[in-house]
Design goal:
Elements (H helix, E strand, L loop, with lengths): L2 E5 L4 E6 L5 E7 L8 H13 L5 E5 L8 H17 L4 E4 L1 H7 L5 E2 L6 E2 L2 H16 L6 H18 L1 H4 L3 H11 L1
Parallel strand pairs: 1-4, 4-5
Antiparallel strand pairs: 1-2, 2-3, 6-7
Helix pairs in contact: 1-2, 3-7, 4-5
Length: 178
């Protein structure tokens, strides 16, 4: 069994790990071209060709705020539809829960003078946290997010209590399983 994380976006992160947490496959998938529906259709096909029937999959939930809402909605639904047609179950994790799993809240500073992290700052904070927690590095924030989700899948499949003792990680797993 592989534990798979999928971060759907125009550059979709895909990571598959084994039961020991070793990365078996890491890839950023883009589809063909930059015009839809060809790009979206080929991207969904590309994602599905990397999935195996016995994978335990965690996929990031729909983004709350995106300037490309039509593309994001179509991609997210397209992936889920293909998994459904193949009878491959999956778990969804909210974008904020992905960050919470590695201890990133989106805020920095002391109480009373906290500052909200935005776009690139938040991505860098997540990448730094993943390196600190797991010793994993990749130049693509999409792949790093997929790595987190693959680790969440591993915690679900093998039992989070067997893998981690961090309260915030156990909370994320508990929320997903409810």
């Amino acid at each position: 069994m592989r534990f798979v994380g999928i971060d759907p976006a125009s550059k979709t992160g895909f990571v598959a790990k084994d039961e020991h947490g070793n990365v078996l496959r890491e890839k950023e998938l883009t589809g063909i071209g930059d015009k839809d529906p060809k790009r979206m259709t080929t991207l969904i096909h590309e994602i599905i060709t990397h999935v195996r029937p016995d994978d335990l999959i965690v996929i990031e939930g729909f983004p709350y705020d995106t300037q490309r809402a039509m593309f994001a909605g179509g991609l997210h639904h397209g992936i889920r539809n293909e998994l459904y047609k193949r009878k491959i179950p999956y778990y969804e994790v909210a974008p904020n829960a992905v960050k919470k799993f590695v201890g990133v809240t989106g805020w920095v500073g002391e109480v009373g003078s906290k500052k909200r992290l935005t776009g690139p700052q938040k991505k860098k904070a997540v990448m730094k946290a993943v390196f600190e927690f797991f010793g994993y590095k990749n130049k693509s924030d999409n792949i790093v997010d997929a790595y987190i989700m693959a680790e969440i899948a591993r915690c679900i499949g093998l039992g989070a209590e067997n893998i981690t003792r961090y309260k915030h990680q156990l909370e994320v797993i508990s929320t997903i399983l409810k």
